[in-house]
Amino acid sequence: MKRFHVHVHVEDLAKNIAFYSAMFEQAPARTEADYAKWMLSDPPVNFAISTRGNAPGVDHLGIQVDKPEELEALKASATRADMALRDEGPTTCCYARSDKYWLTDPQGIAWEQFHTLETIPVFSVSATPSNGAAAQSCCAPAKNTKACC
Predict the structure, then answer these.
(1) CA torsion angle for 7, 143, 102, 110 (degrees, to 10)?
(2) Residue 9: CATH number of its domain
(3) pLDDT tens sequence for the chain (149 residues)
(4) From CA 48, how far away is CA 50, in angstroms rounded?
(5) Range of 108's domain?
(6) CA nearest neighbour of 15 among 53, 51, 59, 54
(7) What is the DSSP secondary-structure string of 17-52?
(8) Which of 32, 36, 58, 77 has the largest CB neighbor count within 10 A?
């Protein structure tokens, strides 16, 4: 099964948790000091909010899959369509360990396609590369980075 994913940056987490909990008629499946996520079944959506962005608004969209084979099929389709993708492979972000890659639509909207392997107790696990450079951010690529079509 595929599940649509939406991640929105918000200024006031508590107010937004109250708003979206009322709208979805359910409490978040996960709540942290800077993050909340609803795993909706009708319609099937992974809807997340956080205070970790530069500005309020839609951060990125995505497709979450249940099986690694589904992720490989999506990646093969993007490759056949000659879409440039940024493959992160196994990574940690948003309190989860996932296998993922990114596409960017013609408007500059980042699309994450991913398979969640497990939840973790922290937003991400930073690894310092052997060359001493800072680790890359785990979430959406920089805005206006055209990587598609």
Answers:
(1) 50
(2) 3.10.180.10
(3) 889 999 999 999 999 999 889 878 899 999 999 999 999 998 899 999 999 878 899 989 999 999 999 999 999 988 888 888 899 999 998 899 999 999 888 778 889 999 999 999 998 887 544 433 333 445 666 554 433 22
(4) 7
(5) 2-119
(6) 51
(7) HHHHHHHHTS--SEEETTEEEEEEETTEEEEEEES-
(8) 36
